[in-house]
Amino acid sequence: MNPINKRILYLIAGVIWGVPGVIITAKGISAYTVIPANELWWLLLITLCVLSGFLWMFHRIVNRYCNLIAALPEKTSIGHTFPLRGWILIICMSCLGIALKFVSFIPAEFTASFYSGLGPALIVAGLRFVKKCKTL
Predict the structure, then answer these.
(1) 71 by DSSP, 3-state: which?
(2) Most exposed: 17, 94, 97, 98, by fewest CB within 10 Å?
(3) Dist CA 122 CA 14 (whole Å)
(4) How far apart are the first and last CA of the chain?
(5) For the chain, what is the mean pLDDT?
(6) Do residues 107 and 35 lie in contact, with contact meaning Cβ atoms separated by under 8 Å?
(7) How far apart are CA 120 and CA 108, in angstroms?
């Protein structure tokens, strides 16, 4: 495999985190459209809790991965974007997300609150990788 610049690794990481974030956010917001108005206040509160938790967790992960990429040689392989554990996590989460599409008993309230919290947190994480790329 041809070696690529570290800046490209940051962009790849941003896309790998940001694109699913956009998709998940859209699904979460669309799930809100079928929920009665009297239930929205507590679901928005749950969404804020989910968002806060994921922002905190992803902040630490992005810092760790940015430090990993920064320590790499200037030209390296795309496989070094994340450690093996990171790639396994991405694959498992993607498979879980795809599997959840085929489960019919998941209530719209869960989809709305969880996805609307997770998606924006993934987008913010992706943007942090892109920002890191621009500061090099």
Answers:
(1) coil
(2) 98
(3) 9
(4) 24
(5) 91
(6) no
(7) 18
